[in-house]
Design brief:
The protein is α/β, with parallel strands linked by helices. The protein contains 17 helices and 16 strands. It has helices at 2-18, 121-166, 178-200, 205-211, 232-240, 254-266, 280-287, 313-318, 333-337, 355-364, 378-381, 386-393, 404-421, 449-453, 480-498, 509-512, 517-537, and strands at 63-67, 87-91, 95-100, 103-108, 221-225, 244-251, 273-274, 305-310, 343-348, 365-375, 425-435, 438-447, 460-464, 471-475, 477-478, 543-544. The protein has an eight-stranded mixed beta sheet with strand order 7-8-6-5-9-10-12-11, sandwiched between helices. A two-stranded parallel ribbon has the order 1-2. It is globular and about 85 Å long. The chain starts with a helix and ends in a 9-residue tail after the last strand. 26% of the residues are buried.
């Protein structure tokens, strides 16, 4: 939890820095307030009076704004760099051209159609920043996994060579005690970790993430924007975030998908558009249906490029639950024929609550993947409709409290952790933001069954005074026995170190094992009886309502 808090604080400062100019002054009259808690990684950012200034010129190529009926349009400025000629964008009647980041989009002005939402500019800017940081973390994590395997193999070869040079008989398993084996393993892992850390200092992970971009790379990320609308956010991801190999732009409205396709072609991305249904690997697998019993109808990696499709968001995520590390020989017929690989990043930005999509999203994101969630139902999360909030998220907000936005973030994180726990997964909050009328959280999802067992230790009940601003949080459960065991082991370890016996072994352990079989069986029976008796007397592992027994120090 401390690491998550530190990460969230660092991300918060980087986010504030990105909104400042060279003189350290916030752009667009932004007023931000950071709230950090020592126990939870939540950063609440309140943005007041955001001003959107739509631009009509991209940084990499000038654009001329034309009307279809106006031939005397202003000409673009001269291209002094000489990189590429200026391009002209014709704005049809009843449309508007908006440029955000590196992407220019045409939107119709009529009502009840796909529209541009300027209020979400900060949301999209923050999302681009967080995905870029995640691409670096992902590159570092994958490099570390590969490096640890490489160093481990090298160290094992070195040990084998040393044993061969010494020409001594290998030690039998019975001659090595459990404590000696643990100490040897700890020394091996410490040496391995030190070598990996030493190699990490010379690696540029940002460059590694940039090199994994594009449809031809096999190490890039796969991103899903489940509720994409016009696809502006996805196109910005493709143009501004390094390390993306595939991005699926999904929306239920075919008109919105077609608009996204037209805008992608208008921005010079026609060659990047691909069709997921025409995957060569899948067609090849269907043609060779009888050639191999371990055939794979779905390719191990999605086709590289931008995939625009009209479909149901939950259906797309439910059919994308195939773990990427599962070999084809271990897949059942349903997985072989109908399921697709999981996504590295899933972005949920619905109109209202994201609760209906969380169950599918938490199954469709890969181990260590990033899940970005937006909820615009602040009327429920903020306490105006507490009964609605309980029905969606299983928690009641505190009305008229001075921390409504932070409490809304914690309610959302609580519900996400509960849904993830159903599938043996835990979440690590990276950044949580409260802006105006919506919440935005970025969490990393991990396969961690041991963490699910401790999930109740991280949840609590909030009690707010009705006469003052004082409040109290009571944990759902505590685990005092684990802390008691940790203190006992720490005291024993310090005592052993003070006596000069760091490995924890005692003289005569090996000799005692060479006694008669009868004495060994008697000692083993006595140990089992003492262990059972001690287990019966020890306190319960978990105590409800934070109450610890009196016999525990």
């Amino acid at each position: 939890m401390q690491r998550a808090t530190t990460t969230a604080t660092r991300n918060y400062h980087r986010f504030v820095t990105s909104l400042c100019n060279n003189n350290g002054i916030l752009r667009d009259r932004l007023s931000l307030t950071g709230v950090r808690s020592a126990s939870k990684a939540v950063i609440s950012i309140r943005v007041r009076s955001p001003i959107h200034r739509p631009t009509y010129q991209r940084s990499n190529r000038p654009i001329t704004i034309m009307s279809a009926n106006n031939k005397d349009a202003q000409q673009p400025p001269a291209n002094t760099e000489g990189d590429s000629p200026s391009s002209t964008v014709v704005v049809p009647p009843g449309h508007e051209l908006v440029t955000e980041g590196r992407i220019s989009m045409l939107y119709p002005r009529k009502e009840n159609s796909v529209f541009y939402n300027p209020v979400q500019v900060q949301n999209r800017d923050l999302s681009v920043l967080m995905l870029g940081m995640y691409a670096e973390r992902r590159a570092e994590r994958n490099w570390t996994i590969r490096k640890r395997k490489e160093v481990r193999r090298a160290m094992l070869r070195e040990e084998e060579e040393e044993e061969g040079m010494e020409q001594r008989p290998p030690m039998k398993k019975k001659e090595e005690t459990k404590e000696e084996r643990k100490a040897r393993t700890a020394r091996f892992e410490a040496s391995l970790e030190s070598r990996v850390i030493e190699s990490r200092s010379s690696v540029d992970f940002a460059k590694m993430a940039r090199e994994s971009s594009g449809g031809t790379s096999r190490d890039g990320m796969s991103v899903l924007e489940a509720l994409a609308a016009s696809g502006l956010r996805s196109l910005r991801y493709w143009g501004e975030v390094p390390g993306i190999r595939t991005i699926v732009v999904n929306d239920l409205d075919p008109v919105a998908v077609e608009m996204g396709r037209e805008n992608a072609i208008r921005n010079g991305l026609a060659n990047e558009l691909v069709d997921d249904n025409d995957d060569d690997n899948r067609n090849k697998g269907e043609e060779e249906e009888g050639a191999n019993d371990n055939r794979d109808y779905v390719n191990l990696a999605r086709p590289g490029g931008i995939v625009l499709q009209a479909g149901d968001a939950t259906h797309e995520m439910y059919v994308s639950r195939l773990p990427p590390k599962l070999p084809p020989s271990q897949r059942n017929p349903t997985q072989l024929r109908h399921q697709k690989p999981q996504f590295d990043v899933i972005d949920l930005d619905p109109y209202g609550s994201a609760a209906p999509f969380l169950d599918a999203a938490l199954q469709a994101v890969s181990d260590g993947g990033l899940l970005a969630i937006t909820c615009t139902d602040m009327a429920a999360l903020g306490g105006s409709h507490p009964e609605t909030c309980y029905g969606r998220y299983g928690a009641f907000p505190v009305q008229r409290a001075g921390y409504l936005q932070e409490l809304a973030l914690r309610i959302l994180l609580y519900h996400v952790s509960i849904v993830a726990g159903r599938y043996g997964r835990t979440i690590r909050p990276v950044l949580s933001v409260g802006m105006a009328f919506y919440c935005r959280v970025f969490v990393e999802v991990y396969d961690d069954k041991a963490g699910v067992n401790d999930l109740s230790l991280n949840h609590g009940h909030l009690f707010q005074s009705v006469k003052c601003s004082s409040f109290h949080v009571t944990p759902v459960a505590t685990n005092e026995y684990v802390e008691y065991q940790r203190r006992q082991q720490q005291a024993q370890k310090e005592q052993e170190q003070s006596n000069g016996n760091t490995d924890g072994s005692k003289d005569g352990d090996i000799d005692n094992k060479n006694d008669g079989d009868k004495n060994t069986e008697e000692e083993g029976g006595d140990k089992k009886r003492r262990k059972k008796k001690k287990k019966d007397k020890r306190p319960s592992n978990v105590y409800r309502n934070g109450r610890a027994p009196s016999n525990v120090d």
